[in-house]
Amino acid sequence: MVGQARLGSKAYLLQLLAALVWACLVIRVVSATDDCTTDHGNGRERKLPKYTVSFLTHDGQFYLAAEEGAPTGYKLVATSSVIHGTRESETFTMFDLNGGALNSDDDVNLALVSASGCYWQAENGGNGDIVTSKDYDAPYEIFRIVRQGGDGEIKNGDKVYLKTNKGYFVMAHGHGGGQVTASREEVTEEHDEEEQFTLVIHSIEWPNDSGYLSYEFGFYGVTYTPPPATTTAECASDYENGKYRAVPKYTVSFITDDGQHYLAAEDGNPYKMVATSPVAYGAGEPETFTMFDLNGGTLNSDDDVNLALVPVSGCYWQAENGGNGDIVSSKEYTDPHEIFHIARQGGDGEIKDGDKVYLKTNKGYFVMAHGRGGGQVTAKGDDASFGGGEDQFTLVIHSVEWPDSGYLSYEFGFYEPSPSPAPAPAPAPAEGTGSGARRFGGVAYDPYLVSCRVFVDAFPPVDLSDITNAYGAYIINLNGNEIEVGKLKLQPAAQSGEAQVQEGSSICHDSITKLRFTVPLEAPVGSEVVSPLTSLVSHMMTGDSRTAAEAQTIVKYALMFDDQLDLLTYDTMDALYRDEASAYNVLKKTSQVLNIVNQCQALFTSSSVAEAMFLSLTKAMSRHYDSRSTQRGLLQATDLFDLTSPSFVSNLYKDTATDMGLAADGAAAEAMIEAVGTSVASLNNVISEASGSAGTDILKEVAKVDIILQTEVKSQVTKLVSGTIDVDLFKDSTTAQVVTSKVAETIVPVNVEEYLEASHAYIESSGGEVPDQRAAPESSSSGDDQTGVIAGAVGGLSAGLIVAGLLLYRRSKRRRRQVVMTEQNPMKVRSHEGVAGRPGGACPGPLKCCWGDGGGSSTTSTVGSLGGNQLLSGISYTGEYGHGGGASSSAAGAGPSSSGQKVIVSLEDVE
Question: Is Transcription regulation set as a keyword in this record (predicted)?
Answer without folding.
Answer: no
